[in-house]
Amino acid sequence: MNPNIHNEMQMQQRYYSETANQYNLMHLDKKGEHFFALCFMVAALEHLEIKSILDVGSGTGRALSYVKKIRPDVKIVGIEPVKELREIGYQNGLSKDELIDGDATKILFSPAEFDLVCEFGVLHHIRKPKIAVAEMLRVAKKAIFISDSNNFGQGPLINRIVKQFINLLGLWPVFDLLKTKGRGYTLSEGDGLTYSYSVFTNYRQIRAQCQSIHILNTQDGNINPYRTAAHLALLGVKKQNNELVTSAPSKK
C-alpha cells in the first residue's frame, strides 16, 4: 500500500477512535441527508426482493439498526474498521455477527453474496473510491446503494459553475491538489479527513454493471442534481444474468 494512503487511513481511524463517544451526536441526524436516503433505500427493499444487506463503513451501525427494526426478516451485516465504533454498536443491540471488522477496499465476502450492498457517507473518506465501488459491485447480487456528497453541487452558484467547468476540462484532480496544497485531502473537526468527492465520479463505473440507475437529491436541489444538489442517493440495480434486458413488451 502507498505509504501516504496508509498514513491517511491511520489519521482517519484515529479521528473516529478519539471521537467515538460523540459519534452518534455528531453524525446521526434524523433530519439529515443520510437518514433521508436510508428511508428511501428501505422503501425499495420489497420492490427489489432484498433478503440480505451488507453495509460498508457502518460506524456505530445506524443503518443496520434501522433496517433491523423495520425489516427484521432481512439479513444484515456491516463492516467497520474502527473498533471503538463497533463497540458502541454492540452496546446498542447489534451482535458481533452483524457488525464486524472490515475494509471497504478489500471486502472479504464472495461475489454476489449479498442482495444489496450500501454505504452512507463513506466514499468521501476514501482516496480511491473507485476501488470501494468495484468491491461493492462485486459483492452485490441485485443492487448497490450510495448516499454521499456531490462536490460539484456544493457552494454558491459561481463556485459551482467554476468547479463544473474545471471538471468538464478533466482538470479537477489537478485543481484539487493545488487547492489542498498537494495533500489531496482536507481535515475538519466535524468530519475528520475527507476527499473532494461526487457520486457522479463513479457513475459510469456503476452504469457498466447496472441495468438501471436511480438518483435522488437528499438535500434541496433544482432540476439538474449534478449542478445543484450537494448530497445524493444513488440506487444501481444490477444486470441479471450479465445481460441487459432491452426487448420491449410486445403489443397486442
CATH topology: Rossmann fold
On the 0 to 100 scale, the average pLDDT is 91
Query: Could you say what the CATH architecture is?
Result: 3-Layer(aba) Sandwich
Q: Tell me, what's the shape?
A: globular
Structural class: alpha/beta
Query: Helix fraction?
Result: 25-40%
Number of helices: 10
Task: Measure the end-to-end span.
Answer: 59 Å
Main β sheet profile: 7 strands, mixed
Strand arrangement, major sheet: 3-2-1-4-5-9-8
Strand content: 15-25%
List unreliable stretches of 5+ residues: 242-252
Specify Rg, calculated over alpha carbons: 18 Å
Helix-strand sequence: HHHEHEHEEHEHHEEHEHE
Domains (count)? 1
Text of the CATH class: Alpha Beta
> How many runs of DSSP E, i.e. beta strands?
9
CATH superfamily label: Vaccinia Virus protein VP39
What features would you highlight for this structure?
252 residues, alpha/beta, Rossmann fold, seven-stranded mixed sheet, two-stranded antiparallel ribbon, 10 helices, 38% helix, 20% strand, disordered C terminus
